[in-house]
Amino acid sequence: MKIYLSMLLVLSIQLLSLWQKKYIITMGNPTSCEPDLSICTIEKGVSTNNNKQSSCFIDKEEEKLLSIKFLKSEITEQFYFNYISTGYFKVGLDFPLSHDLMDELNLSYGVIKTGKYPITETGISYEILVHLK
């Protein structure tokens, strides 16, 4: 019983740390949020998941590299079709991160570079590594 409770506590702590790094990405033009293959906003929280917006996890991999993970269970079919299905995550315009997000992720570089980033599919997620400048 003690082992079960210990494992449950460890799992709860891991889930809590994941929750703390959960963000909402909205796709569109950053200046107008019009439809475009770029990032419009990144905010902390949980999305209602629509055709332009999805919840994701963002973590610092290296000083100039971020990992963005979309859980398969949390993206809409249209979001998948528009932004994931090609196998590349397109950032059409450089996207400056907010100072709060840079602080949360302990980053000294704060702009996601324009680019076409390969998407890696795992059993439960789509993962993208984006470069910072």
Question: Explain this structure to me?
Answer:
It is built from three helices and nine strands. By secondary structure, the protein is of the alpha+beta class. It has one domain. The strands form two sheets. Strands 2-1-3-4-9-8-5 form a seven-stranded antiparallel beta sheet. It is globular, with a radius of gyration of 16 Å.
Shape: globular
Overall structural class, as computed from helix and strand content, comes to: alpha+beta
In sequence order, what are the helices and strands, one letter per element? Answer: HEEEEHEEHEEE
| Helical segment count | 3
Round the mean pLDDT to the nearest integer and report it.
81
In total, the number of domains comes to 1
Describe the biggest sheet? 7 strands, antiparallel
Give Rg in angstroms: 16 Å
Which residue ranges are poorly predicted, with pLDDT under 50 across at least 5 consecutive positions? 16-20
Helix content: 10-25%
**If strands are numbered along the chain, what order do they take across the biggest sheet?**
2-1-3-4-9-8-5
Strand content: 35-45%
Terminal Cα span: 50 Å
- Beta-strand segment tally: 9
